[in-house]
């Protein structure tokens, strides 16, 4: 396919991550920090009568550990406000849904495409068409050219368009294919480049695992810090193991693969990971419509086990009491946003968030804000 010229269009990166601090609740605390990535630069962070913003790439483990300590701030662990903020962060833009066209194949809506992004696709009439049909939302919709009848033809045709659009329109391509289906386990219509998935609004599935240790009746969570070289959310905090679910790989097998690559967990241990449900969210920003479902796993690890990254995507690991991890979730935005949802789910299931807390059921239900099937 010959690539056609495109008007310049660039997308903003995810904004700087803020430490969210309810000023009226916190003591005034100052502590010096030295950036891991700019060692000659010194700064100080003040938690006082206003929120303090720090770029996500500039906080250190020392910052996160200080913030995690129960005694660092005079806040109430039973206050669920900070958790609700994390759910809201993953479910932005519901008022923008009218700006998206349904993406329809075989009379099934399999995604959503922003009108602005659709203008790019109109240049490729041999792949995409825009019929009118009153039976489909808003009348107009996007579909594939009727000449593309097989999954292989569709994958090739859409893939050629994605390559032609290039990094200016779809940044961060990885040459990793995700299946496009109407629902989990349904027949695959075609396969799509992972980075393009949110621009076509297809549902994407992943696996995420909380690795924990028990010592003297107390639970600890292993937390990772993402490499600065990651294309998405560099330098942010993460769960022990997480990964997208690529084409043709079952959830359990994908989890065991990610365990080996991300944390050096051998299969003799990762085989004991327990499937514990799923969380979902729907996030709209600019031309991106993320409809993600994350299958959650727990793995109780031996006290002697120390994770070691194998693929260069993790900067380091720390083992923290579960309550301290909860403090970081409540007080900051240092975690990759969707990881917060999976950890909040863990906190519910392990009794760290209790029914006595105001908003308990609402928060529990909000963890499945996306269509989870």
Overview of this structure, please?
With 373 residues, the chain is α+β, with helices and mostly antiparallel strands. It has two domains: 61-90 and 204-367, Nucleoside Triphosphate Pyrophosphohydrolase (Alpha-Beta Complex); 95-200, Transcription Regulator spoIIAA. Helix content is 25%, strand content 27%. The chain contains ten helices and 17 strands. It has helices at 61-68, 81-90, 115-121, 151-169, 197-200, 251-263, 267-270, 322-331, 337-349, 360-366, and strands spanning 18-19, 29-34, 42-47, 52-53, 100-105, 108-114, 128-129, 143-144, 177-180, 190-193, 203-215, 218-226, 237-238, 241-244, 274-285, 288-300, 314-321. The strands form six sheets. Strands 11, 12, 13, 14, 15, 16 and 17 form a seven-stranded mixed beta sheet that branches. The chain has a two-stranded antiparallel ribbon with strand order 1-4. β2 (29-34) and β3 form a beta hairpin. The longest helix is centred in the middle third of the chain and has 19 residues, at 151-169. It is globular, with a radius of gyration of 22 Å. The two termini are 35 Å apart. 37% of the residues are buried. Mean pLDDT is 85; it is low at 4-55.
């Amino acid at each position: 396919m010959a690539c056609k010229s495109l008007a310049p269009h660039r997308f903003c990166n995810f904004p700087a991550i803020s430490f969210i601090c309810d000023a009226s609740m916190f003591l005034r605390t100052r502590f010096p920090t030295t950036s891991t990535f700019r060692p000659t630069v010194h700064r100080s962070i003040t938690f006082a009568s206003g929120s303090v913003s720090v770029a996500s790439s500039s906080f250190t483990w020392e910052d996160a550990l200080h913030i995690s300590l129960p005694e660092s701030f005079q806040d109430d662990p039973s206050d669920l406000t900070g958790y609700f903020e994390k759910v809201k962060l993953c479910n932005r833009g519901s008022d923008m849904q009218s700006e998206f066209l349904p993406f329809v194949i075989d009379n099934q809506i399999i995604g959503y495409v922003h009108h602005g992004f659709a203008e790019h696709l109109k240049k490729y009439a041999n792949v995409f068409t825009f019929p009118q049909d009153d039976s489909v939302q808003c009348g107009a919709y996007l579909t594939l050219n009727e000449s593309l009848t097989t999954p292989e033809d569709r994958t090739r045709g859409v893939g050629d368009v994605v390559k032609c659009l290039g990094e200016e329109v779809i940044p961060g391509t990885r040459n990793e294919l995700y299946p496009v289906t109407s629902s989990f386990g349904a027949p695959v219509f075609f396969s799509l480049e992972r980075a393009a998935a949110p621009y076509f609004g297809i549902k994407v599935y992943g696996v995420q695992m909380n690795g924990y240790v028990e010592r003297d009746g107390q639970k600890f969570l292993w937390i990772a810090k993402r490499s600065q070289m990651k294309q998405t959310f560099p330098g942010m905090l993460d769960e022990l193991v997480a990964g997208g679910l690529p084409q043709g790989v079952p959830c359990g097998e994908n989890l065991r693969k990610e365990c080996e690559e991300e944390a050096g967990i051998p299969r003799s241990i990762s085989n004991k990971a327990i499937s514990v449900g799923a969380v979902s969210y729907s996030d709209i920003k600019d031309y991106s419509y993320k409809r993600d479902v994350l299958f959650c796993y727990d793995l109780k690890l031996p006290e002697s086990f120390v994770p070691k990254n194998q693929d260069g995507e993790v900067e380091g690991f720390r083992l923290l009491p579960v309550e301290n991890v909860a403090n970081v979730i409540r007080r900051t935005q240092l975690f990759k946003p969707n990881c917060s949802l999976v950890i909040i789910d863990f906190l519910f299931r392990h009794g760290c968030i209790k029914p006595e807390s105001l908003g308990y059921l609402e928060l529990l239900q909000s963890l499945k804000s996306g269509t989870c099937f």
